[in-house]
Write a structure and sequence with these properties.
It is globular and about 40 Å long. The chain starts with a helix and ends with a strand. Strand 11 and strand 12 form a beta hairpin. Mean pLDDT is about 80; it is low at about 5-20. It has one helix at about 5-20, and strands at about 25, 35-40, 45-50, 50-55, 65-70, 70-85, 85-100, 105-110, 115-120, 130-140, 140-145, 150. The protein is mostly beta strands and about 150 residues long.
């Protein structure tokens, strides 16, 4: 029996995309789904969660889902984000804070010095109506610039 090249290539491509998501991280496995928020992130590593040292890694082409208790959360980020054409932004122990609600899903997308928080578990190009908040990361901390896709007045 001959297996078509198209079939083999399809299986390889599906496997490649599935491997990009990585293994989910569960902070406390005794919590139920309505007691946690699921947060998808990529491009940087989270080295601290609410003052606790962690090693949650996601490379430039990897997305990771973490299951954490909802509430006001601070992640400390490490890594380099960018492209050769646009330049690179280095995150070296940069704190990022957001209030994640229990029972909800979020995606954090980092592009240069901007961090977008989106509703739902999204890919690299989420729909515009999923944008909850956009932050400009500066040497003075994070500055909220957009809420629900609308610019925050200065």
């Amino acid at each position: 029996m001959k297996i078509s090249q198209f079939f083999v290539l399809s299986i390889l491509i599906i496997g490649l995309f599935a491997s990009c998501l990585g293994t989910p991280i569960v902070f406390n496995d005794s919590l139920t789904d309505d007691q946690i928020a699921i947060v998808r992130f990529g491009n940087v590593n989270i080295v601290e969660y609410n003052g606790i040292a962690v090693k949650w890694e996601a490379g430039p082409y990897t997305r990771r889902d973490i299951r954490i208790p909802g509430g006001n959360t601070t992640f400390v980020l490490n890594g380099t984000v960018g492209t050769a054409n646009m330049g690179y932004t280095k995150y070296n122990k940069v704190p990022f804070t957001f209030n994640f609600e229990n029972g909800k899903e979020y995606t954090i997308l980092i592009n240069q010095n901007m961090i977008n928080v989106n509703s739902g578990l999204q890919g690299s190009f989420p729909p515009l109506d999923s944008y909850l908040a956009t932050f400009l990361m500066t040497s003075k901390g994070q500055i909220l610039t957009h809420v629900n896709g609308k610019k925050v007045p200065d």
